[in-house]
Write a structure and sequence with these properties.
Elements lengths: L2 H7 L4 E3 L6 E4 L10 E4 L2 H9 L6 H18 L5 H16 L6 H15 L6 H31 L7 E4 L16 H8 L5 E5 L6 H12 L3 E5 L4 H6 L5 E4 L3 E3 L4 E4 L2 H11 L3 E4 L5 E2 L16 H4 L19 E4 L6 E4 L2 E3 L3 H7 L3
Parallel strand pairs: 4-5, 4-7, 5-6, 7-10, 8-11, 10-13
Antiparallel strand pairs: 1-2, 2-3, 8-9, 9-12, 13-14
Helix pairs in contact: 2-3, 3-4, 3-5, 3-6, 4-5, 5-6, 6-7
The chain binds 5-S-methyl-1-O-phosphono-5-thio-D-ribulose (MRU).
Length: 356
């Protein structure tokens, strides 16, 4: 196997610290210029790591939260179940409030809470042991899901194709391979060649900082474009498919992903290019009927006005609107690629069939 490619697809982005009372994360805000690992011990550090996008990407924040609540629980000097469960729920709700849109966060924390709820008769060491197993299982399952998504996605494209992607849904955002980028890494492993266009993804530049970094290092032909260049690239005939990740898929197939994703989908429809959403079933929220019910995170105006610039690019008093995600209407989506296979319209049926 190509070792540089393997270094990218098997990056160690989230793990437990040695004594399992901390979590070690690769700080994505420092990439591509610096590789910095941070050790998170306090609940506030864990919350901030997610809130400030040091760890980001829907599956990655779920994994980070699961490891975090386990690491915190191991620090507590509590012997009785009642006070332990109470403290656990408070920590869960605090971590869960760090970001609202990606359902993987609450999905992972709910799984951890169920372990506590289901075992009131067990001793504290036994409960801690079960929690440790659960957070590791969440991580290991994500590795397997990403691999399966990559296989299914690879079946949708051909050697030599041009692929456009938005934001970052690669190994950094998940665990190994990624979702939207997974088929490209897997294809590369098998000797296939793709030409990838990576939207820079304003305002936080995940496409520039992370996607083009991952693809370039893996030896995949990547061209970085500003978000407003997607149309010309499509019009030139350089894009045969769009692959994007997802933060929450509603029961009818409406999908929240990084702000700007819906514009890509609208353009793709105009140019007759298939638009695929790739994500694990942990990102599907059947309790959410449609996109209007997905909470959209609003972030600081400074991310638009001054972040990344040597000096502010707008007057400080200028009003800004900074939604971190938008919803792509299900009618614009050609398929939703999960680890269990590819869902097609009508999504209300194909998505619910995944959970039967
Ligand atoms: O704000 P971010 O960087 O966490 O947004 C991430 C995305 O929109 C990703 O596309 C999504 O989480 C899928 S990651 C496999």
């Amino acid at each position: 196997m190509n070792t540089e490619l393997e270094q990218v697809t098997h990056i160690d982005n989230i793990r437990l610290g040695g004594d399992e009372t901390s979590v070690v994360v690769l700080d994505q805000t420092q990439l591509p210029n610096r590789t910095v690992y941070r050790t998170l011990r306090e609940a506030e550090e864990m919350y901030d790591a997610i809130r400030l996008l040091r760890v980001r990407g829907a599956p990655a924040i779920g994994i980070c939260a699961a490891y975090s609540i386990y690491a915190l629980a191991r620090q507590w000097d509590i012997l009785d179940y009642g006070p332990f469960a109470e403290k656990f729920r408070a920590a869960k709700s605090y971590l869960n409030s760090s970001r609202p849109t990606a359902v993987n966060l609450s999905w992972a924390l709910n799984r951890m809470e169920k372990v506590v709820d289901a075992n009131p008769q067990k001793s504290m060491p036994e409960i801690l042991d079960l929690l440790g197993r659960e957070c590791r299982a969440i991580h290991e399952e994500d590795i397997a899901m990403c691999r399966a998504i990559s296989e299914h996605g690879l079946g949708l494209i051909r050697d030599g194709d041009g692929i456009l992607t938005h934001c970052n849904a690669g190994p950094l955002a998940t665990s190994r391979y990624g979702t939207a980028l997974g088929p490209l890494f897997l294809g590369r492993e098998r000797g296939m060649r793709f030409r990838v266009f990576s939207d820079e993804t304003r305002p936080l530049l995940q496409g520039a900082r992370l996607t083009s970094y991952e693809l370039q290092r893996a030896g995949i032909d990547v061209t970085l474009i500003c978000d407003n260049m997607a149309s010309i690239v499509m019009k030139n005939g350089w894009v045969q498919a769009c692959f994007v990740g997802c933060d929450r898929v509603a029961a009818n197939g409406d999908t929240a992903n990084k702000i700007g994703t819906s514009s890509v989908a609208i353009l793709a429809k105009h140019y007759g290019i298939p638009f695929y959403v790739l994500g694990p079933t942990s990102t599907i929220d059947l309790s959410c009927p449609d996109g209007d019910h997905i909470p959209i995170e609003l972030r600081s105006p400074d991310e638009i006005r001054e972040m990344w610039y040597a000096e502010p690019m707008a007057l400080p008093e200028v009003k800004c609107y900074n939604p971190a995600f938008d919803v792509t209407d299900h009618t614009l989506i050609s398929g939703i690629v999960t680890e269990k296979g590819i869902c097609r319209a009508p999504y209300t049926e194909s998505l619910s069939a995944l959970f039967r």
